[in-house]
Task: inverse folding
């Protein structure tokens, strides 16, 4: 998770800054990690390093790191600024964790209120209103329009609540399995950019990544075409990646 990744990059940066080589740093982290199982990423990375594989390629192979991470490490390897990229990744995850905490704190109360409201409404329509139907029918009187509307809504909810829930699960599953498709990345990005506040923040985050990567690459004398290609792979945000290609 993000907290473990922030700790990983922080520890790696500190050890390399102290003068250790990459293999020694991974070995120390491996020995200090209490979990000796497949999730022990340090041991997996150290094994690949000893076989002569670049760290970025090893990170990609584990499938535990994002494109942004292993492409950043690749840039650091090719520009000789490996430690600097570790520090930037650590700062990136620290800011990401802080931003997520702020966002969760902001939306938790409204989401709870909305869910409770819908829960109470469904409970009333499914269980409370039907209790009065028999009584109202026995009265054999013409019902007010509002009362008739509530009864009709109760029948509608009772008839469609299960199909609706099944449809939500199916649609959610479809979008989950299509999340890596180009069409999904394209339209989800367009929707995200049009959201109030969130869209502006998202645009700034990815443009900042683009500018930082290009500055690092061009300052390291990497050819412009190659720098654009590497940055397009690293940013991993459809509008920017497509534009760079």
Result:
């Amino acid at each position: 998770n993000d907290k473990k990744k922030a700790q990983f990059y922080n520890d790696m940066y500190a050890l390399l800054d102290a003068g250790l080589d990459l293999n020694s740093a991974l070995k120390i982290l491996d020995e200090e990690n209490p979990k000796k199982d497949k999730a022990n990423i340090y041991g997996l990375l150290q094994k690949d390093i000893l076989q002569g594989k670049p760290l970025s390629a090893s990170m990609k192979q584990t499938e535990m790191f994002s494109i942004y991470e292993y492409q950043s490490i690749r840039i650091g390897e090719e520009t000789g600024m490996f430690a600097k990229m570790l520090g930037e990744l650590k700062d990136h995850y620290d800011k990401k964790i802080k931003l997520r905490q702020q966002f969760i704190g902001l939306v938790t109360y409204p989401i709870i209120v909305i869910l409770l409201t819908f829960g109470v409404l469904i409970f009333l329509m499914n269980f409370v209103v039907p209790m009065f139907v028999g009584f109202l029918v026995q009265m054999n009187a013409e019902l007010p329009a509002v009362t008739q509307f509530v009864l009709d809504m109760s029948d509608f909810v009772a008839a469609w609540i299960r199909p609706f829930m099944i449809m939500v699960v199916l649609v959610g599953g479809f979008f989950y399995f299509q999340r890596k498709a180009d069409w999904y990345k394209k339209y989800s990005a367009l929707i995200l950019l049009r959201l109030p506040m969130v869209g502006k923040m998202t645009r700034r985050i990815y443009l900042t990544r683009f500018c930082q990567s290009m500055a690092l690459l061009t300052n390291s004398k990497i050819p412009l075409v190659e720098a654009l290609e590497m940055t397009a792979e690293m940013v991993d945000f459809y509008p920017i990646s497509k534009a760079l290609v």
